[in-house]
Amino acid sequence: MNVSRNVKPRDLADWPACRYLALFFWSWTALITFGHVLLVTVVAVAWAQPLSSVVPSVEVTLIQIGLTVAVLLPLYFAPGVRRLARSARYALLGPLATVIVLAVLLRIGGA
Q1: Which of 4, 14, 60, 71 is the most exposed place for a label (fewest CB within 10 A)?
Q2: By C-alpha distance, which of 106, 103, 100, 97 is closest to 26?
């Protein structure tokens, strides 16, 4: 028995569907995170208003990004998740990122 032989695990869940799921969930996350900032900025510029109304939206966006990174970074490097293929990891963590961003927007942005 040769124990020094290094066997690579096969890519678990590296299906084309994982790429589309990851794209779907992460695009929703980006839309929820940056959509309201872009909308308020465009409306303020179109109506020649000062951009001071954008500042609260930017603060909410920074909180969303920070909280998402703080939660998902340790999960991304967790051994069980690390074994998955890259597209499967993104597809797995995408819904969690969407939930985090939406919860922050509804909790802080809605107040």
Answers
A1: 4
A2: 97
Q: CA–CA separation, 94 vs 18, rounded Å?
A: 11
Q: What does the block give as tokens for 110? A: 């809605």
Confidence of residue 108 (pLDDT cuts 50, 70, 90): confident
Nearest to 108 by CA among 40, 38, 36, 48: 36
* Average model confidence (pLDDT) across the chain: 85
Question: What is the CB neighbour count within 10 angstroms for residue 15?
Answer: 14
CB atoms within 10 A of CB 102: 16
Distances (CA, A) of 16 to 4, 10, 100: 33, 15, 26
Beta carbons within 10 angstroms of residue 29's beta carbon: 22
- Residue 9 confidence class, pLDDT cut points 50, 70, 90: low
